[in-house]
Amino acid sequence: MKKILEVNDLCKTYIINKRQNNVLRNVNFAVSEGEMVAVMGPSGSGKSTLLYTVSGMDKMTAGQSVFNGKDISKLNPNALAQLRLDEMGFIFQQMYMLKNLSVLDNILLPARQSKANTMSSKEKFEYGKELMRKLGIIEISDNDINEVSGGQLQRACICRSMINNPKMIFADEPTGALNRSSSDEVMDELCKLNKEGTTIMLVTHDAKVAARCSRVLYIVDGNIKGEYNNNEDNTRKRERALNNWLLEMGW
Amino acid sequence: MYLGILKRDLKRKKTMNTILLIFMILSVMFVSSSVNTMLSVMSATDKFLELSGAEDYFVATIGTKAGKEAMDKLNSLDCISSIKSENIFYLNENSIKYNGKTAEISTNGVLNSIDNISIKIFDSDKNELTKVNDGEIYVKNSFLEKNKIPIGAKIKISSGNYTGQFTVKGTFLDVLFGSEMMGTPRFIISRNEFDKFVRNSADDRYDMYKGVILNIATDDLSKVDNIVSGIDGIAFTGTRDVIKLTYIMDMIIAGVFLIVSVCLIIISLVLLKFTIEFTISEEYREIGVMKAIGIKNNSIQTLYMVKYLAMAIVGALVGFVCGIPFGNIMISQSSRNIITGQGNGLLVNVICAAVVVMIIAFFCRLSTGKVKKFTPVDAIRNGESGKRYKKKGFLNLAKSPSRPVFFMAVNDILSGFRHFAVMIVTFIVGILMITIILNTMSTLQSPKLLSWFSMANCDVTLEDKSCIEKYNRPEGQRLRAEYLKEMKKTLANNNIPADCFAESVFKLSVQNGDKKTVSLTFIGSGTTTDQYAYIEGTPPENTDEVALSYIIADKLNVKIGDKITIKTGGDNEEFIVTALLQSMNNMGEAVRLNEKLKMDYSKVLGYFSYQIKFMDNPSDTELNDRYEKIKELYPDYKLRTAGEYVDYSIGGIAGALSDTKSFILIVVMLINILMVVLMEKSFLTKERGEIALMKAIGFKNSSIIAWQTIRTALIMLAAVIIAVILTEPFSQLAVGGIFKAMGSKYIIFDVNILETYIIYPLIVFAVTILAVFISAQGIRGISTQEVNNIE
Asked: What is the pLDDT of residues B611-637, one digit of tens each?
């Protein structure tokens, strides 16, 4: 499989009150096309920082992150924005949306802004609706973002991340703010997307969520301590196997 | 503990606290200086009259005989408590020479001795002027400006049979002849110098150069008016109210500053309310946390009240200090000819500062009061109590063909118009301030105004300073008509097909039964009465017909069809009133006689410039060629276009307004810049999370800056359109009253569309948008990571 993301010797250091805080230390990993990778680790281990740094949302201190053949450490802010718009999708723990736009308009926003997306306005509109229909939230398309539930909103965020047919979706605790049933629904959708060919990298605390991914990276103190390929077919077995591995890792 | 919270709050929320403090300072500064200006301006003329010792009625006579007659008759009245008199010498258009050339005074001037003036006059430092040394002279400021004469220059003055040379020592303020509309400037010399004029002009031949001014204290103005109107040789009569009205044009500038003051107060209060509401909404989350841990509502309110009051007091102190020089600039700009005083100075500033602090406390109490209604969770949710079912967005990006950036800008405005209301109000008020002045200025320079000055429409005027010498004789009417015919012929011979005509002015006694008044009376040479503007009736076609200004008609209680008597020459003649007109001459007094009526021109009060109306429609280039040709043909006359003549007649007020316009343009631009910079700062604080989200999903910085800029640009554009629509009614409201007081109740503003509605709004628009664009660069500092700040 072709590698869509290659991370080499990635370092991220924050300087707070003249004190150096090495959040990521020489991280190396790669993600292949079509993979669904979870990043786990204790609080403060650098999971979210890793996600944001490899995706170009945050600057790296040293190292390299090559996304779809482009070294993002060498891209200027405009090129990075273009990359995020056309080739990446983002899902956050909180269901961040622009409050003056309806749910559908929030979903359509990146599509309408993108010049690489060659669909007509009408086609984009239809595609946005189709995505909503697929994720079971078509009935809230004209709603205000304050009028819908968290689960619905997070699914809307997934639609937004999908609207420009990105090569890869980055998700930071996509189920972190949801109850169990909503969480399951969202994960069902992400898995469906992955099966359809979208590469996904997500950060999670939830072993149940991570168990649905094909690979899990375990990060401690800014370093990838271990990597687990989950080959079990049965959901329960997958969860059990992952939990066992996590226990070994010190989870 | 509370002190600790406050200290940390001030440190942590530096930007918002600074914004609020700046608004507080500006509010105190604007309110205190504006109230001071308002108080000064509103009472300025009354104060000036008081300070000058002006009594109730003024009379100026030509010749000492008329003065003596007036004195004798008035002294016999019971209603008179005192009469102060002063002897004067009249100066005509050729009386003053500077560097060998005739210095310009509009029609005539008055020469006085410093020890014989019936009112107090003041030097440029606003101290009473009591002494003038021999060989020195004090003059009106505008005389020096008009003739470009510096202080210290030497001028020669002739009157009667004497010419004296004087060094210009300084300028002075004079309530009686000081206004720009009063075309008679006063010149003050020493007693010794004045006596030289008296000694050398003792002969009766020179009596017409002499005169008397009476400053009369009375409790029955109509009785005095009746007596005075029966005396021959009266050059001017006026009550305190008339004197006040002569300052109407000076008051236009003061009035403009009054409008500016009111606008600044509105802007300050609107901004203040917005900022306090905005900053307190920023505190909701913390208020929620405090409520959650059990701190009582009152304690929370007190905490924030203390914070805002402390800031208000600091703001009030700084604003108070800054308001003093700002107020002084506004007052000094408001009039050059009036002693405006400084309002009540510091006391007003202190009261205003205290009021603003109280208003801040009130707004703060109002905003924090909402907190009582919220549960801790509601407060943590930033004041949103539960679910909101009201739709925020009105438009759909899905159905809109516009680019997202433009769509979001429009949608933001429509979704939360209240947040932008403060901007739109400020922008509208600012644009209105400018467009009203521009409208007033262009109207005051409009040739259309000629008809309001009892003149027929023309293209060019030629001022002949020797009219009195040429025509002040019984056969003057014929001589003037012949001269105008000759002028027409000369112009025709030079390929300028034109009509030539002119107005002659008498001051005649007009009577209806026992109602009597003295009015300026106009008779044309080379015109017919249908060339003038009337508001009602038909032009006086016969010699026994007359048109009156509605002010004279009201005074005499006559209407169209009534008969009145006018003392033309020595006899009373009967006339039928056939029309009413409006006039801005002498505050609305005018009588129009038929041009065929024979008049004794030895009694003419004055002559207007010759008027030339081209009979074809020359192009602009042709017009310029003709001006040059006419100047060549009549090198001794001063050529003015009709617009220039109107401006000159009003006292060149448009020029002074032009300075005011520039000052206000700068003030408006500064207010807009300040406001958009501060508003943009607050938007960047409030929308930090959303901006980060937009960046995260791939919006470039330039797109986000465009979104922020377009939003303000749209608000500004809407404000410009609304202001343009409101300009005409607001101009009527703001300055229409001044024109009405001058005698013109039907005013149509002459609008220079390009300048008023396009160029100036565009300048303000461009400067404001540039300020937003620069401020919006602040989004570059927001990182995608800050998406977590989203509410």
From this structure: 999 999 888 889 899 999 999 999 989
Tell which of B218, B237, B261 closes a domain. Answer: B218
Residues B436 and B480 in one domain: no
Same domain, B52 and B159: no
> Does residue B74 have a pLDDT over 90?
no
Four-residue CA torsion sign, B550, B552, B556, B562:
negative
Angle of helix B297-334 relative to helix B345-369, nearest 10 degrees, comes to 150
Q: What percent of chain B has pLDDT over 70?
A: 91
Note whether B673 and B770 are same-domain residues. yes
Domain membership flag for residue B574: yes
Backbone torsions φ then ψ of B400, nearest 5 degrees: -95, 135
Residues 6+ apart with CB under 8 A from A150: A95, A177, A178, A179, A182
> In this predicted structure, what is the pLDDT of residue B245?
74
Q: Does the structure show a pLDDT above 90 at A145?
A: no
Cβ B460 vs Cβ B612: under 8 Å: yes
B540 and B676 share one domain: no
Q: Which residue in chain B has the smallest CA separation from A83?
A: B698
Does B701 contact A114 at a Cβ distance shorter than 8 Å? no
Quick one: tokens of B552? 């004279």
For A166, half-sphere exposure in the C-beta direction (CA atoms, 13 angstrom radius) is: 31
Mean pLDDT, residues B399-423: 85
Q: Are residues B202 and B310 in the same domain?
A: no
Phi, psi torsion values for A220, nearest 5 degrees: -135, 130
Residue of B396, B784, B790 lying closest to A102 (CB–CB): B396
Residues B620 and B502 in one domain: yes
Q: Are residues B436 and B323 in the same domain?
A: no
Summarize the confidence of residues B192-211 as an average pLDDT.
Answer: 87
Q: Specify if B764 maps to a domain.
A: yes
In this complex, do A58 and B698 lie within 8 Å of one another by their Cβ atoms? no
Tell whether A52 lies on the interface with B, counting CB pairs under 8 A.
yes
Nearest to B398 among A96, A105, A113 (CB): A105
What is the average pLDDT across A63-71? 93
Among residues B652, B123, B712, the alpha carbon closest in space to that of B427 is found at: B712
A88 neighbourhood in chain B, CB within 8 Å: 698
Question: Token pair of B781, please?
Answer: 């500092």
Distance CA A73, CA B137 (A): 82
Answer yes or no: is pLDDT of B389 > 80.
no
Q: Which residues form the domain of B534? A: 465-636
Check: CB of residue B253 under 8 Å from CB of residue B441.
Answer: no
Chain A partners within 8 Å of B399 (Cβ) = 125
Residues 6+ apart with CB under 8 A from B45: B243, B244, B247, B251, B338
Instruction: Indicate yes or no: pTM above 0.80.
Output: no
* Chain A CB within 8 Å of residue B394 CB: no
Task: For residue B570, count other CB atoms closer than 10 A to its CB.
Answer: 8
Res. B448 pLDDT band, cuts 50 70 90: confident
Name the residue among B707, B691, B679 with its Cα closest to residue B788. Answer: B691
CA–CA separation, A198 vs B115, rounded Å? 102
User: What is the residue-averaged pLDDT of chain A?
Assistant: 89
Higher pLDDT, B382 or B233: B233
Cβ–Cβ below 8 Å for B791 and A128? no
Domain count, chain B: 4
**For position B388, what pLDDT does the model report?**
46
Report the candidate in A115, A60, A55 with the shortest Cα–Cα distance to residue A88: A55
Exposed, middle or buried: residue A220 (CB in 10 Å: 0-12, 13-18, 19+)?
middle
What number is the ipTM of this complex? 0.82
Block residue for tokens 């007091």? B313
Of all residues in chain A, what percent carry a pLDDT higher than 90? 46
What CATH number labels A3-96+168-249? 3.40.50.300
Q: Measured between CB atoms, does A144 come within 8 Å of chain B?
A: yes
